[in-house]
Each structure stands twice: as structure tokens, then as C-alpha cells.
Amino acid sequence: MSDDLTETEKLVIEYAEALTVTPSVADDDLRARMADAFTRKQVVELTQVIAWENARARFNRGFDVQPDGYSLDS
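Predicted structure:
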């Protein structure tokens, strides 16, 4: 993980990764660290966005939706 990220940004990425793997692995320690860093409302919003992006990605996979050329490499 990049040293350019703040500890808070790294925590959010860790949380997103934990929710993204199958099965999800968000444990008590991670939830406690999220609760220490964010309000309950913020955790709910982050969780919702992560879940939505995972659902959207899996939906696209189901219909073989391909990227539309948006890339940093272009």
C-alpha cells in the first residue's frame, strides 16, 4: 500500500478489501478500528458504497459488461 495514503485512507481500503472478498472477513478488530475513526453514520455510508460497488461489479460480470475505455493508462 502506498506511503502517500493517510492512516485513515489505508483503514478504509482495508475495510473495503475485507468486505469485497468472498466470504467477507470484517472482524471485530476491524469494526472497532472503523468505529474509532468514523461516526456510525460514516461507517454506514462507507459500507453502503462498498456494497453497492461490489454489487455493480458482479452485475456487470454477469452480463459481460466490458470497460468503456476509461483508464489512467490511456
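Summary: Residues 7-58 form one domain.
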